[in-house]
Write a structure and sequence with these properties.
This protein is mainly alpha-helical. It folds into 2 domains: 44 residues; 63 residues. The chain contains 5 helices and 4 strands; from the N terminus they run ββααββααα. The strands form 2 sheets. The chain has a two-stranded antiparallel sheet. Strand 1 and strand 2 form a beta hairpin. The termini are far apart. The N terminus is likely disordered.
């Protein structure tokens, strides 16, 4: 009996050939590399968190967590609060999402379902060029 023998169902047809032991090496190797990369990502996330914590430890000891929920900003009295900055970031991000999500979904639907072939490719090329340029550059260009 060879290692490439087939398993037959009740009707005599071949369902699946048996895998040789050497062909499983690639699967085990890929699973090991995938696990190693996932562990590396988790290690990097923990390292970034540790660096953030150790870098901000002195500020947290001096100003406390109250810094995150306070809106005071008085350098003369050493009173600082980040709430207006956090709120401004959240509101501006929400406004950007409200504008960008419907526009991008509508563009994608138009290009994939409605646009004629002669128009589709030039618009897709323009959208890809816009995606390749960092948004900071586009923002600076829009300001000037």
């Amino acid at each position: 009996m060879s290692t490439a023998a087939t398993v037959a169902d009740g009707k005599g047809s071949a369902i699946m050939p048996r895998m040789r032991r050497s062909s499983r090496f690639g699967d085990r190797f890929f699973a090991g590399i995938t696990f190693l990369m996932a562990a590396t990502v988790l290690l990097l996330i923990c390292t970034v968190g540790w660096q953030l914590w150790s870098g901000s430890r002195l500020s947290i000891q001096r100003f406390g967590i109250h810094f995150l929920v306070s809106s005071d900003w008085d350098p003369g009295n050493d009173a600082y609060g980040a709430l207006p900055f956090i709120y401004g970031t959240l509101v501006s991000s929400l406004i950007a999402l409200v504008i960008a999500v419907p526009l991008s979904v509508a563009t994608a639907i138009y290009l994939t379902e409605l646009a004629p072939r002669w128009l589709r490719q030039p618009i897709i090329s323009l959208v890809e060029m816009l995606a390749a340029i960092p948004s900071v550059i586009l923002g600076l260009w829009g300001i000037s």
